[in-house]
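Write out the bound-state structure for copper (II) ion.
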Amino acid sequence: MKYAFCVTALLIIAGCDGGQSAFTGLGPVSSRIVLLTWIMFIGAALITLLICALMLIAIAGPAGWRHNLTREKTIVWGGIVFPVVTLTALLVYGFLVLKAGGELVRAENPVRISVVGEQWWWRVIYRHDDGRTTESANELRIPTGRPVEVELSTADVVHSFWIPAYAGKVDMIPGRINTLHFVADKPGVVSGQCAEYCGGAHALMSFYTMAMTPSDYDAWLAKEQANAIPTFEKEGERVFLSSGCGGCHTIRGTRASGKIGPDLTHVGSRQSLGAGILPNTKEGFVKWISRHKTIKPENLMPPFDIFSESELQSLSVYLNSLE
Ligand code: HEC
Ligand SMILES: [Cu+2]
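---
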């Protein structure tokens, strides 16, 4: 039993690495959080060792030492003054670290992106300098080296937006807009996750963040802003447009202009489907359209058991081609 616990604990700790780890520290904001974490961890470990030593003395130490431990002075200094001073210092330091992290990357002209938490996916809106916007979903693309300002809001309940590799988590609260600031130092893909229980499919509400060199980012953004390329997969497009998908999904450049679900204009170029749940391949689309209710239970897209195998195939090829 004891061993099972240790093995499980080790396995869990081993999972704390890579793309979705707060210890990755990929930018100035998260590096400070990592430092704060280590200071707290090492401090807490030292205090635990001290307490264990005192406990041993209290149980089996020499009579003189034990007597010293029970003196009123020891209790007042060790039991009241010491915790109050240490915890206050840690609290003040924590606030300073977090504030400094935010200040560090606050800039006159950041990259502006709005993210809206929806049960159970992310609406992502890129705000261009000329005031126009481009909508996407379930993925954040950012240029390296430039401060990013993410405006966080929610369409329904409380969600929490967390990219552990870049910054601390910030809640998305009904009726409010919170902002998150961070910078990515180098290109790479990391994942994030909703960090506040928001009902049914909460655990399946993740997303990818891709940091790109500024020139790659500009090229990508121009492509993302454009309408969907005219498709050769006419049959798939026909199935999409005639099955009611367009009531909830937008594909810019077609008459599908629904706003309830994720924008699918360039869905084929995203990292994943269903908010980080399925690979973005033709098979991924087949699975999502035919079995999304079992893959992501309770998600708000209605089931579609109406397609023949060939309709399902062409629909999937069509969506996958929307790059
Ligand atoms: C009643 C609204 C509604 C209709 C109709 C609808 N969807 Fe959806 N769709 C959604 C919602 C909501 C989501 C997000 C589900 C989630 O991840 O929690 C979604 C997600 C998706 C995704 C994943 C998108 C992404 O960014 O990962 C695809 C692909 C998709 N729908 C395709 C379709 C197709 C094809 C049809 C028509 C056969 C369709 N949808 C009809 C609401 C709808
Ligand atoms: Cu959630």
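---
The radius of gyration is 25 Å.
DSSP finds eight helices and twelve strands in the chain.
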